[in-house]
Structure formats: structure tokens, C-alpha cells
Here is the input.
Amino acid sequence: MRNFADITVVGVTGLQERALRTGLAIEQTARILSGSRALLVSPERPPELAETIRHRSGCAPGYDAYQRFMLFDLADHIDTDFALVVQQDGWASAAENWRDEFLDFDYVGAPGHFAQVIYPDGMRRYFRHFDWIHYLSQPDHVVNFVMNGGFSLRSQKLMRAARNCGVPFPPAMPEDKDENLEDVWLCATARAALEERGVRFAPIEAARSFSIEHAGRMHIGFPMQTIFGHHSRERRIEALSQRGGILSYKRNRSFYEDVPGEEAIFLVLQRHGWTIEWPGHTPSTGS
Here is the structure.
């Protein structure tokens, strides 16, 4: 069995009410990555936090404070080669789907629906809802697709380069409000400067296998049961069991009937041993 001593599974929150669930996401992911270190950064240590998880204070409340901590302060708390970032709504779900090739890159996360496309004449344009997909087959266009930061693998090289690349965060005059998000800044706004410092971003194939946020056209025909983890504000960890645990969805199941690919995602999670709780409904139990 591989030893993951080169990875710290870390969760960061400035909101104490999220600390315990973030701790559960850390515990779940760390037990999948045998030998990894485990760290929670929150205002206080939750009394119920697993003894195997270290605790540090360090992130102030507020979304902007979180963004800046992840970009500029996280490295101070990580003494391994890589940090695997988790949240209360993003964690590893299938041990058998880990691939060592993920460690070939400095940043890996789920392909999000948002991307920056650079045209041959240098013009830059942002696309949502996976409307950038067809540009991947046009070699004269550059597609900087955003990989979700809520469940992401980050190297020390990336964390150090983000501090020193010279690109302000948030941008002085952002073209789009999403540029104020740390994962958008990493994958689009500051990407060229980071790549000049040797940072390697995962290609679409590796990112798709690493994690999923929401399904898009790139997932048509893709075997979702082979994905390592997931992240979405719609799903939240509630408890752990010997195999998997309990997660809850934010809205009733009927809502997700109109969300492309979401039913396939929660069915895969069930097969990996997760029990699904729906608001106002009896939980759906995994096999």
C-alpha cells in the first residue's frame, strides 16, 4: 500500500460552525490517503475533532479573508510537498480512484463551468456553463479552465509562486467578479505568471478524473465511478461510517432532476458507500 506522507490533508474555515464538518472531510480523506498528515485551521478546535487531526488557528472570518489565506498564508502551515485541500462540501470519496499521476502537477481540481479563453489576437473572454468546451479543439485558442479550489491538490511550488508572482489579488480592475475567487485567480488571472515560475496545471483529462463539481459536456460518456473526489456547495458531509458516511443535499431531490448529471453523481456516491439525506425525505442508502 502506498504511503502518502508527502501530502497534508487540510481544511480551512474562519467560521467555527463549519469546523466540525470540515474536520469530518479531513478525516475521511486522510483515511483514504494512508500515512498522510491531517490539519484543520479554524478559530477553535472542535471538541469532537478526531485526535489524529492537528489544529491551528489562523483564518479570519469572511470570504475575502479565506481567499487570501489560501493564496498567501496556507504555505506557512504545510510542511509536506503537497496540500490536499478539503471543505465541508468537498472530500475524497473513492480510495481506489487515486492516481499517482496527480502528483505530476502543481494544481489539480475539478473542472468548473467557468473558463478564460484567449483568442489568437490576444483578446480574452470569460465563458460560463461549459460554453468554452469547443475551444479545446482549436489549437490557436488558449483555454484556461478553472479547476475548483474547494477540493484541490496543491504543491509547495504553487503555494510559494502565488506569493511572489507579482499579480495583484483581487485584480485592480477585474473584468469579471469571479476573478475575485482564489481558484479563478490561480487558473486564469495569474496563470501565465505562475507558469513562468514552473507551475504545472493539470490538463483536462487528469482534472476530470481527480474530482467533479457539476457535470458538463466533458462528462458525456465519462465513467463517473472512476472519479477520486468531489466538491459542490449542494453536497455537505454530515457523518462518517466504516465505509463512506452520510452526506446531505441542500435542496429536495426533485430540484436536481433538472441539473444535468447530478443524479449520476449521487448514484456513484451511493455505490461508494454514502447515504444521501434529502431535505424532508428519508435518507437514500448506498449499497
Q: What stands out?
A: The first strand starts at residue 7 and ends at 12. Residues 19-32 form the longest helix (14 residues).
